[in-house]
Amino acid sequence: IPLERYRNFCIVAHIDHGKSTLSDRLLEHTGTISAGDGNKQVLDKLDVERERGITVKAQTCTMIYKHKDGLDYLLHLVDTPGHVDFRAEVTRSYSSCSGALLLVDASQGVQAQTVANFYLAFAQGLSLVPVVNKIDMASADVPRVLEQLETVFELDTSTAVKVSAKTGQGVGEILPAVISNIPAPEGDPKKPLRMLLVDSWYDTFKGVVLLVRLFDGTLKQGDKVHSFATGNEYIVGEVGIQYPDGLPQKVLRAGQVGYVFFNPGMKRIQDAKLGDTFTNVGYEDIVKPLPGFEEPKPMVFVAAFPTNQDDYGRLADSIAHLVLNDRSVTLQKDYSEALGAGWRLGFLGSLHCSVFQDRLRQEHGASIIITEPAVPTKIVWSTGEEQIVTNPAEFPDPDDHRIRSATLYEPFVNATVTLPEEYVGRCIEICENARGVQKSLEFFTATQVILKYELPAASLVDDLFGKLKGATKGYATLDYEDAGWRQAQLVKLNLLVNKKAVDAVARIVHVSQVERLGRQWVTKFKEHVDRQMFEVIIQAAAGRRIVARETIKPFRKDVLAKLHASDITRRRKLLEKQKAGRKRLRAVGNVIIDQSAFQKFLSK
Ligand code: GDP
Ligand code: MG
């Protein structure tokens, strides 16, 4: 099939608007998968993705389609993550395409991620084909959606395709529209290789596998290639296309999207730098590398500890395995006096963080304590030196005189919220309570509003989205992008047990939050700590100031006095029991606390 009959495209949509369902229909329509064989949502490969209905890693699939002109077309459908936490992955997927289906749910209309992803696709110069989905639903309002597409995106909707991905109605019109409205990729197979690394993953049998887009040249087994990013050279072991699983090919040509692995393989997945350009060995001085991508920065951090330190090794393996397939997660060893040895993990955003936690729990069933997600803090010392703190334990103590002359900054985001007009008042209140600053309020239909706010990133990990959904019967949608650092009055909040700080629980919070959070902490922690022989005082301290306090009364003396000599066997039994349970107990100062207390305290 010649280059002019290739099409590389993706689907731009808000979560739940039917991207995965439509992808399946297209794969069935082209005979890539057979209909109704239970092989649903082929592109959402990971269990968690299927379960949560979101795509985290971009997948791709090739289809061969016989057009009405009687010719075969080679179509690459590149799946993209729908969520902005994965913006870097979205941008990379878009750059391997020349067009996109802009998919909108006929009853929901344009939503926050439709807007955000539209602008990303538009900035990449993609040709867009509007597709209205779910026209089978009673609540579908196709004219309203077309009007939104025209007013919000200034799109010509005369070519819009109306479909039901569920029943298959109209789906047959999509690929003809792709062929006539999305240009073929450019590129010259006779030139030296110019190949973009779009994605990579680890396969138990093949090792590190790369998803690549060829801009020029060809690639086949035995070719020697050079990486611009690392300077490494490799020999191609196998090339192929995802159809929908790996199907080996003799050769990949300019314009195609396919996979490659090397022989010998890449040793470390870190050598696969997403956005890297490869060329033929010997041409590295002639060929110009493609523009790369920014390395994504982690914005949300948690610490994770095994409930039982005996599980450390097993859990270390699980985490290493998960990180291997998601390099946007950063990983460091961590140690807590209260919780023992563990890890500190960094994520692109709060959804990314919760998806990873779910994986850890579901795929590995690990018993694990995970601290509350937190955003980093930037400290600018009076000397002008900057420090970014991702672990509250590393935040200077209030006694450190330098911290008083330092300036503190927290990360902010620009958030876009869409919602029905009747809930505007309540949503503004929620955003203001989250220390948001309103940027704009716009009607994009008579009843739908787009609210723009500048918000502290910390409000996102405090479940701002959940609160907005709660206030709008689930109608609010949220999208955001990084807006840089803002100066803020921040303070370290410590949980103290008999004057001793529980290091793993500490958080850096805005001064306006300390009273509420401090009270919440002491009340909740008290519930989970057993009585001791002596009084236990639980306090929350903001810097040096105590903001909340609870007391756990000791056992009454007579309870102990009742243990007579005749109770010796009982006492021994008790001691043995205590020994067996000891592994799970830890001391904070002189107070013994069961690990499960931390787990309960930290779980929502
Ligand atoms: P994604 O998040 O964009 O990948 O959305 P999914 O493909 O997972 O679809 C979200 C939900 O909408 C699922 O429950 C689908 O069964 C449903 N859905 C998708 N397309 C249609 C459609 O055309 N009609 C109806 N009624 N439901 C649909
Ligand atoms: Mg999906």
TrEMBL record:
One of its GO terms (cellular component) is mitochondrial inner membrane. Signal peptide: none annotated. InterPro entries: EF-4, EFG_III/V, EFG_V-like, EFTu-like_2, G_TR_CS, LepA_C_sf, LepA_CTD, LepA_IV. Keywords: GTP-binding, Hydrolase, Membrane, Mitochondrion, Mitochondrion inner membrane, Nucleotide-binding, Protein biosynthesis. It is a peripheral membrane protein. Residues 4-186 form the Tr-type G domain. PROSITE patterns: G_TR_1, G_TR_2. It catalyses: GTP + H2O = GDP + phosphate + H(+). GTP binds at residues 13-20, 79-83, 133-136. It is found in: Mitochondrion inner membrane. This is GTP-binding protein GUF1. It comes from Sordaria brevicollis. The lineage of its organism: Eukaryota, Fungi, Dikarya, Ascomycota, Pezizomycotina.
